[in-house]
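Hello Y.,

Per our agreement to keep a running log of every chain we model this quarter, I'm adding this entry. I've kept the format consistent with earlier entries: sequence first, then predicted structure.
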Amino acid sequence: MIKRLTRKFFVRPTLEVAKDLLGKFLVRKYKNKILAGKIVETEAYIGPQDKASHGYKMKRTKRNRAEYLIGGHVYIYLVYGMYWQLNISTEKRGLPRCVLIRALEPVIIEENQKSKNKKLTSGPGKLCRYLKLDKSFYGEDLTKSKRIWIEDRGIKIKKSEIVARPRIGIDYAGKYWANKKWRFYIKGNLFVSKK
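Predicted structure for the entry above:
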């Protein structure tokens, strides 16, 4: 049975949410069409202690205020002036914690087309381009939105299928935080950004 994820899912500990999002479906309504993909890779950011988090030491800016919203809200921002990054707030209001959605497996791709099109959504910027996401989604509530949400379609990912690796592109946070195995992906999935 297909069901939309509720607030209860997102207000749990960030590492649990990051792993449990694997196998769920990110759904976007765009011009009377549905664009969707199975979440196959995530990264957790657990401020205020996490030096890689935008909310490190409870830093608050106009850019990161959505990271402080109660679990289930969109925190989207631009990197390198061209790539949108989709994050979802987690846990309780006032704590800067979120999960970055790193890669999707599009549902429209047929089995024999997967390897050919694996670059379509195999990275945070690519999946935002595929889903037509931009700053207009900033702060959107995934539990209530009519244009973006996450569904549970009954796919169970076993613990043995989840790979944990260090996060990508956060060397600035120092060795301790850069080596945290807070990036999770489905073993063997062709759409994972980096093995």
